[in-house]
Amino acid sequence: MNWGALDRYAKSLIKEAAQHIKHSFFTEIEISAKSSANDLVTNIDHEIEQFFIKRIRRDFPEHRIMGEEGFGDDIQSLDGFIWFLDPIDGTMNFVHQKRNFAISLGIYIDGIGMLGYVYDVMADDLYSAMKDEGAFLNDIRLPSLEDTTIEQAIIGVNASWVAPNRYVETAPMIDLVTKCRGTRSYGSAALELTHVAAGRVDAYMSMRLSPWDVAGGIIIANEVGAISSTLTGVRPGLLQQETFVVANKSIHTQLLEEFIVLKK
Ligand code: IPD
Ligand code: CA
Ligand code: CA
Ligand code: CA
């Protein structure tokens, strides 16, 4: 495989898709609810996913695609080439804010992340990475992350972590948000991964994410030395929804051992 050519191909596809998204602001967007009233999807999510799938199937017929909106393949194993696609990550932001959403794409071979992309469409910020070749923001290399401490860290958590929930004990989380320098929540898992990769936030965690939310961002974060895992500390499996944490490597273990205490 010519990875440089595949990288250029993926980037041009993403930029073309982004143009469609921007043009959609001049049309009437159809919004509907999926699993619950707050789980939004639009005709643009569907159209963008179909755009990618049509192109990828035409140009790489032997590759498989896992997309959020279900137009891709039914993926039960990580064998071969798989493209993990979230056509719009942060649909709620797309609908309500018309910003702070991203296209997320990860290209894997036999479960190994090779090429990762997160495109912040409205900011025109393209984060990309190639395995062992580094991570980039608009083709400028992102430096490796420097060590930090919980006391100096900005932690990407939303309010559900300190409210009664099914997954974690709230007392250690309250301890974490009290001890750390500050907290942030942006509403797009893919963008939050890039904030960790760029060193703007030192960790991000979620109680439930899907493979397409994280597949691209994990590769980018990995290239600057951040660690991604489930809340039990194992590598994300990329075949189903899972808990997720990505963090500067100097605080990842401490987060899991001291602050993220899973309910029995
Ligand atoms: C969602 C966003 C959000 C996260 C949700 C995801 P979507 O993706 O990444 O930040 O908290 O769990 O489902 O549905 O907007 O693509
Ligand atoms: Ca969604
Ligand atoms: Ca998503
Ligand atoms: Ca989505």
What would your notes on this structure say?
This is inositol-phosphate phosphatase. It holds the Pfam family Inositol_P. By secondary structure, this protein is of the alpha+beta class. The longest helix is centred in the N-terminal third of the chain and has 22 residues, at 3-24. The protein folds into two domains: 3-141, Fructose-1,6-Bisphosphatase, Chain A, domain 1 (2-Layer Sandwich); 150-259, D-Maltodextrin-Binding Protein, domain 2. Helices cover 33% and strands 27% of the residues. The protein is globular. The protein binds D-MYO-inositol-1-phosphate and calcium ion (3 copies).
What would a concise description of this structure say?
The chain contains seven helices and 14 strands.
